[in-house]
From TrEMBL:
Residues 112-121, 181-193, 215-237 have a biased composition (Basic and acidic residues). Pfam families: SAP18. This is Sin3-associated polypeptide Sap18. Residues 102-121, 147-237 are annotated as: Disordered. It comes from Daldinia eschscholtzii. GO terms for cellular component: nucleus. Belongs to the SAP18 family. The lineage of its organism: Eukaryota, Fungi, Dikarya, Ascomycota, Pezizomycotina. It comes from the Eukaryota.
Amino acid sequence: MDRHTTPPFMLRLFYRTGAFHRPDEFNTSQLPPHMPIYTWPDCTLTELTYIIAALKPSLVPNPAIGTRFAFRLIFPDTRSTSGPTSSKYAVKDLGSVIVGNGGKGLDPNDPEAEKTIESEGDKTLKDAKFVVGDFISCAILPPLPDGSVAPVSSARVGRGTGAAEPRSAIGRTPSGSFGRRQQENGNDRDRPGRIRNSGRGYDGPGNRGSIPMGEWRRGERLPEPPPTGRDRGPRRT
């Protein structure tokens, strides 16, 4: 798909720490906290993860390695027979993205368990049968106290940690606002595919994400985040 010639559509991306949204939360005109973004059918779960990290960095633990972003599709349930005035929604699990991608060193004491941790970051909205007007809900699951990746089953349905509010004393405050072109799918439209970094450092939409890229082992010193002032040094090309 050529994103330069294909017009994007608006997607409402809902987020919550520690829990999924209940379907009935979408029955009201006052929707839960969310971010409206412009994207395309080939947008992946990995892209959505970086959009959340870039636009709402205070929601992401610091360091972010081992955090699971679990996604669900929320869509109107046309089979509902509850009445014409009561809108009902159905839920479909889409998969999850694990920061660090379940790579080596995630749990050195249990290498066999590591093999069962898979990331479905390459799944696209098209793969999920997304239709314009549907919603995407994301449950942000920080690592467990022992540092292991939280299973999807640990996500409650309903109020999470602050119900979409930032977890206290974690993450960083936003370093600035995004321009219109950066807000289209969370990154620069001229470079729609720039999500991953072949090196080890920080990357993400607009280079402002709080997720360190590359293969990092637990206990290693993470790179310093990009400076937030005006003196940012030479821009990478």
